[in-house]
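Table S2 (text version). Query chain:
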Amino acid sequence: MKKIVSILTILFFGFLSNAQTGIGTTTPVNKFQVETNVADPLTTGNNVQNGHLRLTGIGVTHMLDVGLMSSTSNFGTWIQARKKDNFGVNYNLLLNPNGGAVGVGTNSPTSTLTVGNSTGSVSGEITINPANASGEGGQITIIKSINNSTYNWTIDQVGDATNPRFRLFPGNTETNGIIIKENGFVGIGSASPTTKLYVNGDITANSIAGTSDVRFKTNIRSVSSALDKIKQLRGVYFNWNQKAFPEKDFGAQDELGFIAQEVEKVVPEIVTKDKTKDQYRSVKYDKLVALLVEAIKEQQKQIDVLNEKVNKLSKSKN
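Corresponding structure-token output:
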């Protein structure tokens, strides 16, 4: 008898180890298979059927539903954490809350979240949709370090009707960061750059090179009357108007330079106007070098003529 029981026990567990369990199907092909009507995740409802699998608990109001999308063009699987008696209330879904890496498109994640694999056969792409239907685009918030930092950083896009732009900035002040407009203009300290690079503030660099290859130029002609133009320019000391233009981040120290409107009357080629209704002017100070070089050459010619006259006078006296 014991032998019979042992044989039956072995056969029973052997059957279980090879059996498939089906819910909603009589021909399961996996160890556990559930089949039911496909359905998109409901946004309203009170503890009604939705999806293929539901996980809930005793004495709690939250649950987790898993299902297959019903759309024939969307073969996705959905997971939704929500309130049991009100499907309009969604709850958090936690992945590895105690630690561990999460991989999407990879079986060997190397960070908290790794997207795509290292060979490139599965691309690591992320799409961030708008925050709402109005002016706020997708957004990433980088939380400040535990020590020695003051602000969180924000990366986002703003769909301003007159000034749509990409932003990277700390805290709530976008002009403390970098702005990129849709036309490629970059602003540092400015939310509305009007040139390829617009900086409100000072710049320090080892050197700045300007494009000057002859192959880029046409209609080349020499500068004339350079000395006369230099003589008409007025160098001034001044202080920036910080009170009227706080957004410009002007320094408080004494400055040395020109008045753009005065320069414009003499050498309009080196004065630019920004693309605003006020048309604030700027001076291309580096372009003055060419004018100064030609002015020095004109002055040297005058000196050479005077030297020649002096030499002749000296010889005639001798």
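Notes on Table S2: The chain has four helices and 18 strands. The chain has a mean pLDDT of 91.
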